[in-house]
């Protein structure tokens, strides 16, 4: 994965990362608040060997002996005897087990210095226990290192002596908890866990969530992506109701890309389908029909979803008669053609729902209907059921010039897209491209130029020109009334 993919994981799983960050900070704050304060008092000891001679060799051997003893004294400091003597000498109502784990001894390499630390919840008790531990240790070293009386050592003085460099002082500030460090660690752990969970979900998630991944799976061009709009159920025809919106501009982009999809083999009959239900294919087809008709094309829309038709409700047409009546030979094609939008384009409804849609759509009469529509119109858009649940779309796809596949962001899996393409390839059918639908918008900023909202109007531009610079423009001759009434479908 490259940096762009890692950033995409963060963008997709930001809610999970933020949640883990809040949990980590909350846990760190809770631990900090509930933890008892701990204080540490320390004492530095100097360990020296008692030389019996005054030569350099004796001094050198004494230093080596001191360094060797220091390493062994680290273990000795935590012994049971030292803890017992320290508790007794401190005159505190404690047991030797209380000191277990509270004494820390550090020995610097190649030195004769020992640092003893004792940690406790009370700063004064930490000081008292530190002095008691050190004094008990010094007495123990004296007993262990004492030698026999000899002419060279008439008093039997110990060969090694530990001396206190400075007594323990009462600590002023606690060593734990450390709020800032705990919060930083909690935040770091929360971010790591949150991003790891987001990355794992991204790896396990096989749904389509980008144009690049969709194009990689299909091997066909992505003609465009349409943003998610929660108001689609109330206003599916966005191009008709809000032509200046960014979603309307997205459909115009799909229209342009569709016209240049294959210049060598122009498509007159285009089937719109999807892998599974609920991917926005019918809404996409309706808006695509509007934008194609607005560009001057003669457009016909055919509702070939004879199981759950949507065009009748979207366009507000009569669904009682339509394609089924023509395929059964009950009505002529001209009878079921219904103009929409002031003769902007024509629509053929579904008609009565038959018990055998696949047989009707895959028959010769359907091929004849499409051939006649292709002769009359520049482009024919056909809505059909999803590919995977039923075989209607596959049976119809072979009779069209090309297929558009709608893919829903974050819902349609790679396997479903692959299976849908395999069903089309088995017919065979020509896939013109795909449309990624219901893509979540990042923020409120539109990806399109604000041609409509911010662009100056012509009358405003002319109004700002000085009167001397305005030239007289010859009026444009008006169109004859008989030609002005002719629509694109006449």
Describe this entry's structure for a reader.
There is one protein chain. With 490 residues, the protein is α/β, with parallel strands linked by helices. It has 20 helices and twelve strands. It has helices at residues 3-12, 14-34, 56-76, 80-90, 123-145, 179-204, 211-218, 238-241, 246-259, 281-294, 311-315, 323-327, 333-336, 357-361, 364-376, 392-397, 414-425, 451-454, 458-463, 481-484; strands spanning 39-49, 103-107, 113-120, 160-166, 222-227, 269-274, 299-303, 337-340, 345-348, 379-383, 402-408, 431-439. An eight-stranded mixed sheet has the order 5-12-11-6-10-7-9-8, with helices on both faces. Strands 2-3-1-4 form a four-stranded antiparallel sheet. Strand 11 (402-408), helix 17 (414-425) and strand 12 (431-439) form a beta-alpha-beta unit. Helix 1 (3-12) crosses helix 6 (179-204), helix 2 (14-34) packs antiparallel against helix 6 and helix 9 crosses helix 10 (281-294). The longest helix has 26 residues, at 179-204.
Blueprint of the fold:
Layout: H1 3-12, H2 14-34, E1 39-49, H3 56-76, H4 80-90, E2 103-107, E3 113-120, H5 123-145, E4 160-166, H6 179-204, H7 211-218, E5 222-227, H8 238-241, H9 246-259, E6 269-274, H10 281-294, E7 299-303, H11 311-315, H12 323-327, H13 333-336, E8 337-340, E9 345-348, H14 357-361, H15 364-376, E10 379-383, H16 392-397, E11 402-408, H17 414-425, E12 431-439, H18 451-454, H19 458-463, H20 481-484
Parallel strand pairs: 5-12, 6-10, 6-11, 7-9, 7-10, 11-12
Antiparallel strand pairs: 1-3, 1-4, 2-3, 8-9
Helix pairs in contact: 1-6, 2-6, 4-5, 9-10
């Amino acid at each position: 994965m490259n940096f762009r993919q890692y950033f995409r994981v963060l963008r997709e799983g930001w809610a999970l990362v933020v949640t883990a960050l809040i949990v980590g900070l909350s846990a760190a704050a809770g631990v900090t608040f509930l933890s008892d304060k701990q204080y540490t008092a320390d004492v530095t000891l100097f360990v020296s060997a008692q030389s019996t001679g005054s030569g350099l060799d004796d001094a050198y051997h004494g230093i080596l002996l001191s360094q060797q003893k220091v390493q062994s004294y680290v273990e000795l400091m935590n012994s049971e005897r030292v803890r017992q003597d320290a508790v007794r000498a401190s005159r505190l109502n404690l047991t030797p087990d209380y000191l277990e784990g509270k004494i820390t001894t550090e020995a610097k390499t190649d030195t004769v210095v020992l640092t003893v630390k004792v940690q406790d919840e009370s700063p004064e008790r930490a000081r008292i226990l530190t002095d008691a531990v050190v004094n008990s240790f010094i007495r123990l070293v004296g007993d262990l290192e004492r030698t026999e009386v000899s002419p060279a050592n008439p008093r039997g003085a110990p060969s090694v002596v530990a001396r206190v460099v400075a007594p323990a002082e009462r600590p002023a500030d606690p060593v734990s908890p450390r709020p800032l460090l705990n919060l930083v660690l909690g935040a770091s752990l929360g971010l790591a866990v949150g991003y790891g969970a987001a990355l794992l979900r991204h790896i396990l998630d096989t749904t389509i969530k980008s144009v690049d991944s969709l194009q990689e799976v299909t091997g066909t061009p992505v003609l465009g992506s349409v943003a998610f709009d929660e108001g689609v159920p109330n206003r599916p025809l966005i191009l008709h109701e809000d032509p200046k919106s960014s979603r309307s501009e997205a459909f115009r982009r799909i229209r342009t890309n569709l016209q240049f999809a294959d210049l060598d083999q122009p498509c007159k009959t285009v089937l719109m389908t999807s892998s599974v239900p609920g991917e926005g294919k019918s809404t996409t087809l309706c808006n695509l029909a509007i934008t194609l008709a607005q560009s001057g094309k003669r457009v016909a829309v055919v509702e070939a979803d004879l199981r759950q038709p949507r065009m009748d409700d979207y366009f507000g047409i009569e669904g009682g008669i339509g394609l089924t009546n023509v395929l059964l030979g009950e009505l002529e094609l001209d009878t079921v053609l219904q103009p929409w939008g002031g003769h902007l384009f024509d629509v053929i409804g579904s008609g009565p729902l038959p018990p055998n849609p696949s047989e009707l759509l895959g028959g010769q009469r359907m091929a004849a209907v499409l051939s006649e529509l292709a002769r009359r119109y520049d482009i024919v858009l056909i809505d059909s059921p999803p590919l995977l649940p039923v075989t209607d779309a596959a049976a119809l796809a072979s009779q069209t010039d090309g297929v558009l596949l709608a893919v829903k962001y974050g819902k349609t899996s790679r396997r479903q897209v692959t299976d849908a393409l395999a069903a089309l390839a088995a017919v065979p059918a020509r896939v013109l491209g795909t449309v990624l639908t219901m893509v979540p918008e990042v923020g409120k900023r539109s990806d399109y130029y604000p041609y409509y909202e911010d662009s100056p109007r012509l009358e405003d531009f002319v109004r700002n020109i000085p009167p001397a610079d305005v030239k007289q423009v010859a009026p444009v001759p008006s169109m004859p009334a008989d030609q002005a009434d002719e629509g694109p479908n006449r």
